[in-house]
Amino acid sequence: QVQLVESGGGLVQAGGSLRLSCAASGSIFSSNTMAWYRQAPGKQRELVAFITSGGTTNYADSVKGRFSISRDNAKKTIDLQMNSLKPEDTAVYYCKYFARNIWGQGTQVTVSS
User: pLDDT (tens digit, 9 = 90+) per residue, 26-78?
Assistant: First the structure.
C-alpha cells in the first residue's frame, strides 16, 4: 500500500496559524519530492509548495513568506506550517507525491475574516 493521509485542518481567524501534517505509508517516501496542493470551491487545484528528497523547497507566490513546508523522512511525514492566514487560503489541502498520481484524501482549512 502506498497512501497519504492529511490531518490538522480546521477553522482559524485571519492572521492566525495552522499546521498541517501528511503521513505516508509504503517504502517510496524518502526518495520522492513531496508537495502540498489546495483547491477552493469552484477553483482549480493549485500547487502550494514542494520539498525535494534533499530538502530543497519552493512555494507559490501567494504563500511565499507565510507558509513553510518540511519533511521528516524517519517519520515519513510532511508538514505545512501556515502563518498569517488569509480568507483566500480557505481550501481543501492535499499532499501528493510530486511526480506520481498519489494523493491524500484532503483536509479542510477555513480562514474566517
Answer: 888 899 999 999 999 999 999 999 999 999 999 999 999 999 999 999 999 99
Q: What is the DSSP string of 1-70?
A: ---EEEE--EEEETT--EEEEEEE-SS-GGGS-EEEEEE-TTS--EEEEEE-TT--EEE-TTTTTTEEEE
Query: pLDDT of 82-102, one tens digit each?
Result: 999 999 999 999 999 999 999
User: Would you tell me how many other CB atoms lie within 10 Å of the CB of residue 81?
Assistant: 15
| Cell numbers placing 96 | 501528493
68 φ, ψ to 5°? -140, 125
Within 10 angstroms of residue 63's Cβ, the number of other Cβ atoms is 22
Q: Return the residue matching grid coordinates 512555494.
A: 59
What gap in Å lies between CA 6 and CA 92, rounded to an integer? 10
